[in-house]
Amino acid sequence: MASGAELFLGLDVGTQSTKALVYDAETGDVVERSQISYDLIEGLPPGHAEQQPEMWLEAVVEAVGALERRGEIRGIGVSGQQHGAVLLGEQYEVVRAAKLWCDTSTSEEAAALSAELGRSVPAGFTAPKLRYVAEREPDVWARTRHVVLPHDFINACLCHDLFTEAGDASGTGYLDPRTGRYDADAVARTAPGLAEKLPPIVATGAVAGRLVEPMAQRLGLTADIPVSAGGGDNMMSAIGAGATGPGVVVCSLGTSATVFAFTGAPLLDPEGLIADFRASSVVPGTAEPGHLPLLCVMNCTEPLEAIRELTGRGHDELTALARAVPPGAEGVTFVPFLVGERVPNMPNARGTLTGLGANGLDAGVLYRAALEGVAMNLASGLDRMRGLGLDVAEVRLVGGAARNALWAEILAACFGAAVRPMAETETAALGAATQAAAAARGVDPGTLPRSGGEGEAVTASPALAEAYAALRPRFAAEVEAAGHRRE
User: Fold this and answer.
1) Distance of alpha carbon 255 from alpha carbon 264, whole angstroms
2) What is the CATH number of the domain that holds 318?
3) For the residues 448-460, what does the mean pLDDT come to?
4) Over 60: is that where the pLDDT of 28 sits?
5) pLDDT (mean) for 372-401
6) Are both 207 and 263 inside the same structural domain?
7) Is 161 an active-site residue?
8) Which of 12, 168, 233, 269 is catalytic?
9) In a domain, 439, yes or no
């Protein structure tokens, strides 16, 4: 590596792990990476999903400590799982475990807020979590002085300062994505005293702080290097995947799955199923932040992981077995709503497995049914985005499961569009590092080189596309039945 390398650190603080990635802003190469895995808090009641924010910080310290070139890093950007409610005391101490995006214990609060505000506020958003704590745990709420999001918490640890940005904050339920400012009515209705607990909003893509000496020592970095505003994992993934201008649609496959695209204006869904987030990059040629209409389904790789654990077989072996199974998984339909679902809005739904025949419990059949169930649910949401005006010619695949070739074929057939796996699938960490480099240089992140580029496009054969077009009504009927059983 040339001595003139301009290295920037991207951190992606997720639900299953924290990833650290070192990006060279001169070449666009990823020169180093590390990852620290962890789990949710065990033993909680059904519907509850929580983690200790201190665990994220320890994972950051460990992940950065594993990087050999950390002493050369010139700036930091942080990506974080969206919607989590991090409650802090006066000295930024954590006063409660964070409720996460996949926590559906707040479905009653979400329904009440939606009715009061006249718009959809999903159970996964931050606002219902805060009402939950304020009403059910008033002693905890009384000790809470600051309310931040997961990526804000890491930034606070790095800079010893509290701030947020409009992209991640637009997933709270109390920020107006059209203006990028807090919605005073939604803030007042969410929880008493919330307005005094919220951090200021800094400019998208700005240098928002500097690394303080104590954290620099813990991380092995140079003190006072710039820390960019960062953002939610979807906003950072958009930057990492090149969705910083119109025309690029991205599908991220992880614990949850998202489909999003950069638009210059809001793409408004009257039912609120497609979220209108702010982007963390500006409209090309302007200083105005763009928008990031986004579909999110809560169930993506977890159903596959459950089958792996059940069968004791690895994902590669299960994929090979599933490839030998015809489309439709021999009549088996898997509605994969293991933790409820956001789209469709069924937070209390449960998964169903129907149509079992003589081979219904075969490992390959089960795995293929899970791949198909997630793909068809995503396709229904993508159809909704098309109906709102989004043009979908091709979909870029990112995330941990984007390299599964069989799943790419199934997705292409269900989407009715080519899909293109990205060479660099960890686009949230890459986007955070790219944003850090852009902020330090005072340029738009879309002007900087990106690592790896795009893989080859995957298209579905006409026969496969026809097969899934015929199967989707059966899946839709099972989804409706699953909802009636639980809602």
Assistant:
1) 28
2) 3.30.420.40
3) 85
4) yes
5) 95
6) no
7) no
8) 233
9) no
